[in-house]
Design goal:
With 552 residues, the chain is mainly beta. The chain has six domains: 48 residues, no CATH class; 98 residues, no CATH class; 63 residues, no CATH class; 97 residues; 99 residues, 2-Layer Sandwich (Alpha-Beta Plaits), CATH 3.30.70; 89 residues, Immunoglobulins (Immunoglobulin-like), CATH 2.60.40. The protein contains four helices and 43 strands. Strand 8 and strand 9 form a beta hairpin. It is elongated and about 170 Å long.
Length: 552
């Protein structure tokens, strides 16, 4: 059988002529072969799979979840958006990169899966990928690192995303972005973004006085409507109001050494004492109201004369001293603390109590006058010197002032037949609480009232019998008879505390009944012992008993 042998196809593939008229060595049709440069036939190379992207958790979604392959300086990346899926061991050297839909960054709860990677490239070793999501949105991403990738912000900022109520937190992100753009403009200000209802997010904006602007009423898109509501228009500028602090001069006397030695605001001295002693209360005129007003006027003048940083001026209105800030300070000085330091019987507080109907047996014990939890008297004051309310008020003032170095409070008595005892703190801060004053009469007639800042009377005064007693021991030693105290009034239980010189031993120092003893052969001795009885009221009442102990 005859045949034709074609040894080569040096003229390649050419179908312009029929097979009868073509030059020998011309190929008209080839299937599953390729012609090399030498005109020889070779078998075509096949597309063979080299790896498989395996989802290890297919139950979390339906269909494919990995899209695209892009080489980078750190390897080959593929992209997915379904949380909880990973690549299996059959896909080595492939980096799975999680891609967030932009709305998920601000609270979108519904997952929008990737449906396609439309484009990808590598720039400077990093990937740049255009991703399409199931909601039809398309966003570019760049610079994958740490298992994630960044959305290009210029394609997201200001874009309102349509969706259900669960997706509207994404729109808050864009409202906040818009707010930030406005706040960054010179002369413009904004409030915080709020969420008054469901899918609404709002904020307010305004400009500095004299800076005019207009707002488009509304902008509507498929995602919703952005509406502007005019609240105020052309608000006139408001002049700044200087911060002020004030205090009152409520009492004091020249003979009582009334002084204000310091006035500080935020720790800065504002009282001018240059060339003179600290301010002293003016000479008494017999009219307390007039004295207070003179003192306030003098203080205002000395504050205005002082040079400080910040600088202040002052004015007096009656007994009220107002210290006025420099308005150029703006809001910087708001909340500064005013501190008044006094001496003697200078009064800058309003706490007081009136005493009425006292007699020669009226007694207020140590701790019987308190401001809050602070006792301002540490000795028992029993009325004497004529048995009048005026003399008793003077006694109480003297006792309070004698204890002022410890308590931090001073006192001043004013008035005639029924005098008022005024109480004031020696170092008074403007943020100190109002003085809560309590007074307890422990014995004798008298009432407390008609004052300010308290004046509580505790009835059922505490008493003890005998208030004084005497016992003896043997001439060469031994134990004395027992001294027993009986307490009435107040509120039980009571506590007892005996104390005295060491010459005798107190055998029961914390009991209502005790005996005393001294060593055998001891020298003749004598001493007075005191028992302090305290009840359980608030404030506590105390009463004292005394026992003189001696040898035969």
């Amino acid at each position: 059988m005859s045949y034709i042998q074609l040894s080569n196809f040096r003229f390649g593939l050419d179908t312009r002529k029929s097979e009868l008229t073509s030059v020998a060595g011309t190929l008209e049709q080839a299937t599953d072969v390729a012609v090399n440069q030498g005109g020889e036939l070779e078998v075509r190379k096949a597309f063979v799979p080299i790896l498989e992207l395996v989802d290890t958790n297919p139950s979390t979604h339906a269909g494919n979840c990995f899209f695209g392959l892009q080489e980078t300086s750190t390897g080959i990346n593929t992209y997915f958006s379904i949380p909880g899926v990973t690549l299996g061991a059959s896909s080595p050297n492939i980096n799975p990169i999680f891609v967030h839909h932009p709305a998920t960054l601000v609270g979108l709860s519904t997952i929008e899966p990737i449906t396609a990677v439309l484009y990808s490239t590598c720039f400077n070793g990093r990937d740049w990928v255009v991703v399409q999501f199931s909601d039809g949105s398309v966003f570019p991403y760049y610079n994958s690192s740490g298992g994630g990738i960044l959305v290009v912000p210029e394609f997201v900022n200001g874009l309102f995303l349509a969706g259900t109520a669960t997706q509207h937190p994404a729109n808050r992100f864009n409202i906040t972005y818009l707010q930030g753009l406005i706040a960054a403009l010179q002369g413009f200000h904004t409030s915080a973004v709020t969420n008054p209802s469901g899918n609404q997010f709002t904020f307010q904006m305004w400009s500095d006085p004299g800076l005019a602007y207009s707002v488009t009423d509304s902008v509507t898109s498929a995602a919703g409507t952005l509406v502007a509501s005019l609240i105020y228009s052309s608000v006139p500028g408001v002049a700044p109001v200087a911060a002020q602090a004030s205090f009152q001069v409520t009492g004091g006397s020249f003979t009582g050494g009334a002084q204000i030695t310091s006035i500080k605001i935020n720790g800065v001295e504002v009282l001018n004492t240059t060339g003179s002693n600290p301010f002293i209360f003016p000479v008494t005129t017999g009219n307390l109201t007039n004295d207070n007003q003179i003192a306030a006027a003098n203080l205002a003048n000395l504050i205005s004369l002082a040079i400080s940083n910040p600088d202040y001026t002052a004015a007096a209105n009656g007994n009220l001293v107002s210290i006025i800030d420099n308005s150029s300070q703006g809001a910087a000085d708001n909340g500064f603390v005013l501190q008044i330091t006094s001496a003697g019987n200078m009064m800058v507080d309003n706490a007081s109590f009136a005493i009425t109907g006292t007699g020669s047996t009226t007694s207020i014990i140590a701790g019987g006058i308190t401001v809050g939890a602070t006792s301002i008297i540490n000795s028992t004051v029993t009325e004497g010197g004529g048995g009048t309310d005026v003399t008793y008020a003077a006694q109480l003032v003297a006792a309070i002032q004698a204890f002022s170095g410890t308590s931090g409070y001073t006192a001043f008595a004013v008035g005639g037949t029924d005098p008022t005892v005024c109480i004031s703190k020696l170092v008074r801060n403007s943020n100190d609480p109002v003085l809560a004053l309590t007074v307890v009469i422990n014995a004798g007639p008298g009432t407390i009232g008609a004052g300010t800042g308290g004046g509580t009377v505790v009835t059922g005064a505490l008493n003890v019998t005998p208030q004084s007693s005497a016992v003896t021991t043997g001439p060469t030693g031994g134990t004395s008879p027992v001294v027993s105290l009986t307490v009435s009034g107040g509120t039980a239980p009571y506590t007892y505390a005996w104390s005295g010189p060491p010459a005798f031993t107190i055998n029961s120092p914390n009991a209502s009944a005790t005996s005393f003893s001294r060593p055998l052969g001891g020298a003749f001795s004598q001493g007075q012992y005191q028992c302090v009885i305290t009840d359980s009221t608030t404030p506590k009442q105390q009463v004292f008993a005394y026992c003189t102990v001696s040898t035969n």
